[in-house]
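Tokens in:
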């Protein structure tokens, strides 16, 4: 039988996943939902080489920054990471982590942009289900358990109402197709005031959209204010979705590329940007459109764009903007570039309550 192992801890810092880091034992231990200075006991749930992962079981010394979480599901739900402290502290932890990650890259001071609110912002939410055990909720990757979240505070009101309706007398069971395997996922999303539910469809049914509408507008305006593009600007928007980041900019010519978007309302091309010939194909498209970009926008998924350096050395735009939802891959991609300078570095909090955030980097050719 699995033997429970309890260990003492003292938290020294917060890592990029929002977990407290303790070095009290021979292995570095990561403990979610703790704060620097806190002391207590944690139960070890897993380990790799020289590190282990544990869960808080007892607090013997509490940080003065600790608050009681506003959400009743916080202890069991794996999706929020900072509700045991104020939003101000949350943003500070994110900023400190981004500063640490950019340690080796020359850059001006990071500008941090707080979210306009901490809750009721997501216009889409994905839940996992298991019909055998009649459970619907957030999947904890560590133990594969589903945590029910009928009172989740993250979605916008319309999505939240639908969420509560699904939990009411387990009515979600009725919308799972009879031939569905017992385990799957469903997504509740709001588009133009209408709420829809997609069962076992790829994530982001109906196309990618930023999940926090007001902060998305903020992001668009940040690009507009910082770039000050004009009617002569020629731009290439990679991983463009529906052109969200460039729709509001001034330009004379624009080419948007994305694999999945269905939009045909502007010069848009569907292309797998991770395919080996993506750069060559893009160059052909630019030639056909007589477009020599002076501005390149890149907004990839978490996996980043490993060969960004090849793209910018080949296309040679005057300016590059890299918008990233994963600072690790962002730093990996930027580290290979030495012909551009980071002129602006911004943390925009599109995902409050969680460890996620958006980073915007403005680069200019040296
Ligand atoms: C973080 S989103 C950004 C979308 C858009 N810039 C926005 O602000 O809404 C990443 C985009 O990458 C696209 N994408 C994912 N994999 C891709 C691939 N292999 N090739 C091209 N685009 C891809 C997705 O469809 C999605 O629109």
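Residues out:
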């Amino acid at each position: 039988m699995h033997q429970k192992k309890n260990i003492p801890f003292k938290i020294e810092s917060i890592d990029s996943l929002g977990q407290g880091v303790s070095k009290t034992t021979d292995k570095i231990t990561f403990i979610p939902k703790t704060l620097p200075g806190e002391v207590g006991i944690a139960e070890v749930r897993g380990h790799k080489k020289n590190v282990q992962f544990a869960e808080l079981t007892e607090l013997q010394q509490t940080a003065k920054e600790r608050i009681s979480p506003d959400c009743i599901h916080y202890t069991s739900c794996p999706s929020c990471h900072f509700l045991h402290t104020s939003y101000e502290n949350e943003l500070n932890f994110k900023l400190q982590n981004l500063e640490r990650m950019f340690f080796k890259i020359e850059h001006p001071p990071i500008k941090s942009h707080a979210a306009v609110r901490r809750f009721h912002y997501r216009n889409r939410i994905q839940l996992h289900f298991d019909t055998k055990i009649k459970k619907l909720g957030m999947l904890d990757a560590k133990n594969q358990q589903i945590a029910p979240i009928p009172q989740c505070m993250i979605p916008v009101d319309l999505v939240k109402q639908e969420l509560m309706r699904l939990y009411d007398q387990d009515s979600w069971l009725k919308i799972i197709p009879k031939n569905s395997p017992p385990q799957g996922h469903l997504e509740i999303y709001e588009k133009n005031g209408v709420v829809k539910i997609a069962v076992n469809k790829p994530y982001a049914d109906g196309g990618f959209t930023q999940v926090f509408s007001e902060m998305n507008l903020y992001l668009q305006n940040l690009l507009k204010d910082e770039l000050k593009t004009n009617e002569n600007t020629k731009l290439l928007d990679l991983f463009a979705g529906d052109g969200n980041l460039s729709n509001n900019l001034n330009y004379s010519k624009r080419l948007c590329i994305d694999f999945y978007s269905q939009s045909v309302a502007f010069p848009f091309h569907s292309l797998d940007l991770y395919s080996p010939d993506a750069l060559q194909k893009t160059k052909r498209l630019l030639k056909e459109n007589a477009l020599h970009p002076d501005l390149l926008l890149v907004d990839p998924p978490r996996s980043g764009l490993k060969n960004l350096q090849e793209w910018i050395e080949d296309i040679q735009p005057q300016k590059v903007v890299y918008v990233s939802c994963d600072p690790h891959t962002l730093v990996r991609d930027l580290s290979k570039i030495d012909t551009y300078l980071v002129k602006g570095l911004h943390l925009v909090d599109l995902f409050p309550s969680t460890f996620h955030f958006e980073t915007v980097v403005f680069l200019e050719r040296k």
